[in-house]
Amino acid sequence: MTEVEARIVLVTAPSPAVGADLCRALVEERLAACGNVVPGIRSIYRWQGEVTDEAEVLLVLKTVRGRVPELIARTRELHPYEVPEIVVLDVETGHVPYLEWVTRETGS
User: Fold this and answer.
1) What is the pTM (predicted TM-score) of this model?
2) Domain, as residue range, for 28
């Protein structure tokens, strides 16, 4: 079986507008084939010694393995957080035409 190159990248952002801007930039730069901006999440986390409870949005970005380092670097440049959440998940399998589209759209 051929290894699937697709990756899912999860990123949180402070608002729908910031999330959409970030997602749009990554797609325009071909670092992601597409992204979803999922509103209405609530994040509770410890930051600088305090528990924080914030409304956020979740970005679900689709890319390929070879673009991940650039996507992470660019997200860090554009993101307003000091330490943004950027988590990369391997894709085990999926609808082959969709996975091929992701590969084409990221210039891979």
Assistant:
1) 0.94
2) 6-105
